[in-house]
Amino acid sequence: MATVKDIYGAMDEWAPFETQMDFDNAGFLVGRGEAETDKILVALDITQEVVVEAQKLGCQLIVSHHPVIFHPVKALTDESVTGRTLLALAEAKIAAICCHTNLDAAQDGVNDCLAQALGLQEVAQLHPDGVDRAGRTYGIGRVGMCHQPGMSAADYAGRVKMLLGAAGVRYTDGGRPVHRVAVGGGACGSMLADAVAMGCDTFVTADVKYDQFLEARALGVTLLDAGHYATENVICDRVAQYLAKRFPQVSVLVSHRHKEACACV
């Protein structure tokens, strides 16, 4: 077995928690650090359904990407979604470790997984933010060359949808064939200027605002919104593989209950 603190330490080695953005709340958020675990569930989010799944599977710990506590909790009751989820964790004695923007920025983290899922080549960082305590450069976003340069915006949007299993892809056609692609898992539309500065003609991200689509089109950049879930869920298998290798005595599972929260018609 391993303790919850052991798992936290392993995640901290990969994606140091001190590299998280100021607004974030990544870390060891629920449970007892010395509690032992022989089974872990990995999920993008900790929802009530995921807690039930973990309980049925006999997991003592959930490792997620999005923090189960993001805003300050002033009351812990069953009268809010967050309260019900936290109560369910506590009552089931399931701990929670959440690795958010630190895992977005880390090498082999969310954005590297997204670039790999899309088959990008010659991958580099989109916006280096600093160097961690191990001397590794970290930062949000990646850039790379399209696996099949010269695709149209429509064809590339279809390929992105297929590769990520996205519910749908919203996009604006920048008017140029797809060659150099930037990716930003989750809501990274504000990094459009970074993509332009890196010579990208295409940018794949999520949660894109109307004005960002207009700006991209004016700049001649094909901007694709493949959805928050689809652009970040690529990290779950990687987390499970990492923890299984670090702790061979622990069973590490990926959630099958947590799915895309929205649908397209």
Description:
It is a single chain. The protein has 265 residues and is of the alpha/beta class. It has two domains: 2-100 and 233-254, 3-Layer(aba) Sandwich (Udp-n-acetylmuramoylalanyl-d-glutamate--2,6- Diaminopimelate Ligase, Chain: A, domain 1); 106-225, Udp-n-acetylmuramoylalanyl-d-glutamate--2,6- Diaminopimelate Ligase, Chain: A, domain 1 (3-Layer(aba) Sandwich), CATH 3.40.1390. It is 34% helix and 23% strand. It is built from ten helices and 13 strands. The protein has helices at 4-14, 48-57, 81-92, 101-105, 110-117, 153-164, 192-197, 210-219, 228-232, 235-246; strands at residues 2-3, 27-30, 36-37, 39-43, 61-64, 95-98, 121-131, 137-145, 170-172, 180-183, 202-205, 222-225, 251-254. The strands form three sheets. The chain has a six-stranded mixed beta sheet, with helices on both faces. Helix 7 links the parallel strand 10 and strand 11. The chain is globular. The mean pLDDT is 97.
Q: Pick out the low-confidence regions.
A: none
Number of strands: 13
Total count of domains: 2
Instruction: Report on the biggest sheet.
Output: 6 strands, mixed
Number of helices: 10
How are strands sequenced across the largest beta sheet? 7-8-10-11-12-9
**What pattern of helices and strands is seen along the backbone?**
EHEEEHEHEHHEEHEEHEHEHHE
Using the 3D structure, state the CATH architecture of the largest domain: 3-Layer(aba) Sandwich
Q: Give the overall shape, derived from the CA principal axes.
A: globular
Distance between the termini: 46 Å
How helical, in percent, are the residues? 25-40%
> Could you tell me the radius of gyration in angstroms?
19 Å
Mean residue pLDDT: 97
At the fold tier of CATH, the topology name of the largest domain is: Udp-n-acetylmuramoylalanyl-d-glutamate--2,6- Diaminopimelate Ligase, Chain: A, domain 1
Strand fraction band? Answer: 15-25%
Structural class: alpha/beta
